[in-house]
# Entry
Amino acid sequence: MFNAKSDANTGYADTRAAAEAVAQLLWRLETQLDEAFATGGELLAALPRARSAANLPAIAGQQAFEVLGQAIMAIGTARGHTVAGHRVIEKLGRQIGYETSFGDELPKPAFVPTGADASHLRVAA
# Structure
């Protein structure tokens, strides 16, 4: 992927430029997926409010709600695949001796994989 011999054929000046281009595109894709997911969530939240404001029955717009819900789930799946791809690209970068953030500009705090901080919970007998 980042072979110095093929740089002349890629349009990149060198391996570093190619890696930086990949890093920027990966960061942009992750940002756009996050924005799409957030916008989709706002849209799904607006649908029942709009239905209620228009005094329509619960069935009104149900099909749109279901289809758009599936679209949001697909964005979530795409985001997961992108995060997995991010890790693969980072690993490849380390293997070829090139370190770049690939979009991770700031250190991330430790987190529980479920996304929930359960450190304050304890079992009471």
